[in-house]
């Protein structure tokens, strides 16, 4: 029995040393007292009763705070499902929180600060705004709390404050949408006798994921058009106009990409922005850079009935992003041309796995997750279907 207790104390000492090496967390002293609390029952336990305790120790007795962008869409519900699944598999605790809306940036920052005050073993963060969390990230690093970002990176994060970013290559994913939408519109663009318009609805201009997708679509669509000898001009929201590779000149453009961003990230307000573009006679294509924006385009179409899959017949072709029952249904019935999907479930799983690896003293790095184009022809494929959450 003495050997057993000595082994427990040695494991605890090693865990405290690892915590100190990761930033000297204040919880180390509390962890060191844990064996004393368990000493009495351990003294009476039969050898076979110790197995469940050993299994828990192997998984890591860790608590993580996970902060998503919101609980508004099924996308984040899928991510939370992944978090809970991984936590159960690894024997760790994960507390998931998030603001009601992705535009509630201040609420999310408050949640992040509250999570830091709880002194967890690590924090998983899907930031609504890539700049609003910088001070909090510095505080977390000062307190020795590791942070893993998922879905959206934070490019300006204090050096060393974010140990891993788990996200789709968002710029590349936006380009994937353009790679599939442009060929379907190519003949209509080539035969046009006046400028044509492509609409883009982004739910905001703050998070890395949304801005990168929007810019990826603009830059790729412009590149493909230029290869066919067409000039492109980008108008609308200043962030996207100022940060795309070439905004062009509207006066001489063959193609106008009009970018709209609503005042708040709701389907209804995205629908209002989409309606304004869909109502223009020269509009031939649309792109919504996430589930909310894509559903906003579809909501606008409910009153206008201008979307479809045949540009020769005058249909406006719409490309979306993410999944959900509304988008999937619209793609199946031909209302929406197609979309790019991510794997939020995998992101949630990878976030908890990565935080656990960090808590175990392992070295981690960024983890890219893939995005896939899907339409009515391939959405049932084995490589695509598992990523199409409802």
Task: Record keyword descriptors for this entry.
single chain; 390 residues; alpha/beta; Rossmann fold; seven-stranded mixed sheet; six-stranded parallel sheet; 14 helices; elongated; disordered N terminus
Task: Provide the CATH top-level class of the domain at 170-343 and 376-387.
Answer: Alpha Beta
Q: What is the N-to-C order of secondary-structure elements (H for helix, E for strand)?
A: HHHHEHEHEHEEHEHEHEHEHEHEHEE
Count of helix runs: 14
Q: For this structure, what is the CATH homologous superfamily of the domain at 170-343 and 376-387? A: Response regulator
Write out the strand line-up for the largest beta sheet, numbering strands in chain order: 7-8-6-9-10-11-13
Largest sheet: 7 strands, mixed
Rg (CA only): 25 Å
- Helix/strand structural class: alpha/beta
CATH architecture of the domain at 170-343 and 376-387: 3-Layer(aba) Sandwich
Q: What percent strand?
A: 15-25%
Give the overall form. Answer: elongated
Distance between the termini: 53 Å
The helix fraction, in percent, is 40-55%
CATH topology of the domain at 170-343 and 376-387: Rossmann fold
- The total beta strand count reads 13
> If you average the pLDDT, what whole number results?
86
* Uncertain ranges: 1-58
